[in-house]
Design a protein that fits this description.
The chain is an alpha/beta fold. It folds into 3 domains: about 5-415, TIM Barrel (Alpha-Beta Barrel); about 430-645, Class I glutamine amidotransferase (GATase) domain (Rossmann fold, 3-Layer(aba) Sandwich), CATH 3.40.50; about 655-710, Immunoglobulin-like (Sandwich). The chain is built from 20 helices and 28 strands. The strands form 4 sheets. Strands 10, 11, 12, 13, 14, 15, 16, 17, 18, 19 and 20 form an 11-stranded mixed sheet that branches. A 9-stranded parallel sheet has the order 5-4-3-2-1-9-8-7-6. Strand 22 and strand 23 (about 670-675) form a beta hairpin. It is globular, with a radius of gyration of 27 Å.
Length: about 725
């Protein structure tokens, strides 16, 4: 039977809001300081997910005792408890939770109480199959795992709200409940009929008329013109490429639909409890939700982060994710909601993480603005899909190296209480936007190898190595106050972004723009004219062709005015194969200098003699354009010159010893983290006390491999 859209699809305002006002308002929904009040009371939050329903009552008491000894002050309870709360439709069993919350409160452990809506009980899918999600191939998924719901399902949402309201009504006044947690890792996507109906409602709110949609989607291409909204479906499996504008809108819709789920449950909580913070756990650079549009809905930005211990670049990439979380909240303290104390269980090959590395990652999060560090999970599971995922209390028990490390972290976080509420000040902004990321990596472009996150991370690592603090910002953000602005790749570039960059340069900022930027408008339509259309006057350069490069790249010739000396070299006559010197990779652009100085050119091939990197002075500001993917030494040269021109320096002047040293100021505290295996020495201008060790250092502080210091001025 076809769905009657008006009768069965729940009323939501998400598309109307986006169409009327654009993405969500200023980040950080904690206008009443709910999270700040919690951390002022408890200090840095420390703990993890706790699943007492998997254990007997005697174990609960042992858990509370061990938590207290480890310095745990917060646990998340009830994330996957729906089937226990509601074993049959309409039945409620909360008695066991009463006992758990009372035990935790008596033991001094605060509770972040979750709505259990991430994993409905099997009976819901059996009785209401339409609540189950449908994939892009039209296959309806089944219960037996988790996340088995369609975000658009009216019946699912009714049941989710019912259990949420009953949970909140029962525990809103419990003194142990200090925070609310909606769902878990909201990231579901559905292509079913009910989702299609909701997508059409979203499109009506966004475009108003089918004519406006046809214009936005350019449906004259491939005879796709629609006569009515009823003809539109999600981008299910098709014979060939999906319309990129349709795919982009479905991503927008899917993110908004998930946000609506969060809002519904948050409002059910707020109707009863207006004082405690409410959040949900984000997932870093997660591809299925635009967290810029979510940020203003959360009382605290909370993140789940699982850096790969086997990746040598993980420390810098983890720092980037921390900076994203801090930036989503407008610089306010955030919370690491989930991490692993050791190995995870979901990679093909799960390398362990040492207690020392786990500690270093905890300190890193705090250094970059976190006022909470929590793990998945407290006690290692004996059964189920996560039985080999590490935990704060491993299978082998408390007398273990892992649990000793957990206790050490608890002590360290207690000693860092003085940084609670402090902020990280940054003079560098790096532009990143989910919608641009989505659109840039659709099918049928010049190359699938130019990846938005690869570009972002490569550029960020240069700043991380230099000890320079970075904020992330969406392209149309207010860039006032930033002296250096980096645009590694922004395929979709709104008009407001071009204006903001131009104004920043006019007031003296250094701006560096990377390849494949400003290509398309908000509908993913290519802007016509010499590219990047909105920025070519600012850049002093314009292009006419995007050119994928051969697998072994193309050699570059550096001008004598090239900044620095890294990677300098002129290719020999052999050209591609045996060429000496630096090589561009992945993508190049056929560019013409329109007033900019050419710093590097392509040596041969399709782009021979063309500009690869340019620089132009605009009054007090300077703009670089990097029209290709540079090797790391050359990228470093460009970005370091941009920093130098703006007089932006790192948190420390330099180190003696191994590389891999991270340094950042949070308030008056200088954090130095040594991610290498060798000791390093950091010069000090004035004496300082290490909050972690209690030691006082004068001219030089020694940071052993895998260790960290948190330096503050000595007491007067």
């Amino acid at each position: 039977m076809p769905i009657d859209e008006e009768a069965t699809v729940p009323s939501t305002d998400h598309a109307v809001e986006r169409a009327a006002t654009g993405p969500a308002s200023a980040p950080g929904g904690d206008t009443a300081g709910r999270f700040a009040a919690l951390t002022a009371d408890l200090g840095i939050l420390y703990g993890g997910d706790y699943n007492p329903e998997q254990w007997d009552r005697a174990t609960w008491r042992d858990d509370v005792r061990l938590m207290g000894e480890a310095g745990v002050n917060l646990v998340t309870v009830g994330v996957f408890s729906w089937a226990r709360y509601e074993p049959r439709p309409g039945v409620r069993d909360f008695d066991w939770l009463d006992e758990v919350l009372d035990l935790l409160h008596a033991g001094g452990i605060a509770v972040d109480l979750a709505t259990p809506t991430a994993s409905p009980p099997p009976w819901l899918g059996r009785l209401h199959p339409d609540t189950l999600p449908v994939d892009a191939d039209g296959v309806r998924l089944v219960a037996g795992s988790r996340n088995q719901f369609s975000p658009a399902s009216r019946v699912y949402r009714q049941h989710a709200l019912a259990i949420t309201r009953d949970l909140v009504a029962r525990y809103a006044d419990h003194p142990g409940v200090r925070m609310w947690h909606v769902g878990n890792e909201l990231g579901q996507i559905c292509y079913g009929d009910e989702s299609a109906a909701e997508f059409r409602r979203w499109l009506r709110a966004r475009y108003g008329t089918i004519g406006a949609l046809n214009e936005a989607w350019a449906t004259t291409v491939w005879s796709q013109r629609y006569a009515d909204f009823a003809e539109i479906l999600p981008p299910r499996r098709m014979p060939y490429h999906v319309n990129p504008s349709q795919a982009l809108d479905f991503r927008r819709y899917s993110s908004d639909q998930l946000r609506t789920l969060y809002r519904e449950q948050r409002e059910a909580i707020r109707a009863v409890d207006a004082s405690r913070p409410v959040t949900t756990n984000l997932m870093g650079f997660f591809a299925l939700a635009d967290y810029w549009s979510w940020a203003g809905e959360l009382d605290v930005i909370a993140d789940d982060a699982y850096p790969d211990p086997g990746d040598p670049r993980a420390p810098a990439d983890a720092a980037l994710t921390c900076d994203l979380m801090r930036s989503l909240g407008g610089g306010a303290p955030w919370m690491l909601m989930e991490a692993a104390v050791g190995a995870v269980s979901w990679r093909d090959h799960n390398l362990p993480k040492s207690p020392e590395r786990s500690r270093l990652e905890a300190v890193q999060a705090v250094a970059r603005g976190a006022d909470g560090v929590c793990y998945f999970q407290w006690r290692a599971a004996r059964a189920g899909a996560e039985r080999f995922h590490s935990a704060m209390l491993p299978h082998a028990g408390a007398d273990t190296r892992v649990h000793d490390g957990v206790r050490r972290v608890g002590g360290d976080l207690a000693r860092l209480r003085g940084v609670v509420g402090e902020r990280v000040a940054a003079r560098v902004a790096m532009l990143f936007d989910w919608e641009s990321w989505w659109a840039a990596e659709e099918q049928a472009g010049p190359t699938r190898r130019l990846r938005t996150l690869d570009q972002l991370r490569a550029w960020y690592r240069v700043l991380w190595d230099a000890g320079v603090a970075v904020d992330l910002a969406r392209p149309d953000a207010d860039l006032t106050g930033y002296d250096v602005i980096l645009v590694p790749q922004s395929y979709l570039l709104p008009t407001g972004a071009a204006t903001a960059l131009t104004e920043a340069v006019a007031r003296g900022a250094s701006v560096v723009v990377g390849p494949f930027t400003g290509v398309a408008d908000e509908n993913a339509h290519v802007r016509t004219g010499r590219f990047p259309v909105l920025l070519r006057d600012l850049l002093g350069v314009s292009g006419e062709e995007w050119v994928p490069l051969p697998d072994d790249g193309v050699p570059l010739v550096l001008d004598e005015r090239w900044p620095g000396a890294g990677g300098r070299g002129v290719p020999d006559a052999g050209g591609v194969g045996g060429a000496a010197g630096p090589r561009a990779s992945v993508l190049g652009e056929l560019l013409r200098a329109d007033g900019a100085t050419v710093l590097a050119t392509f040596a041969d091939g399709h782009l021979a003699g063309g500009a690869a990197v340019t620089r132009v002075v605009r009054g007090a500001g300077v703009v670089w354009y990097v029209g290709t993917v540079l090797p790391e030494p050359l990228l470093r040269d460009v970005l370091v010159e941009a920093l130098d021109r703006a007089a932006v320096s790192g948190a420390i002047e330099g180190t003696s010893g191994a590389s891999g040293v991270e340094a950042i100021h949070r308030g008056d505290t200088l954090f130095v983290l040594n991610h290498s295996s060798e000791s390093v020495q950091v010069r000090l201008d004035t004496p300082a006390v290490d909050l972690l060790s209690g030691l006082t250092w004068t001219d030089v502080v020694v940071v052993p491999g895998g260790d960290a210091v948190a330096l503050v001025p000595p007491p007067a």
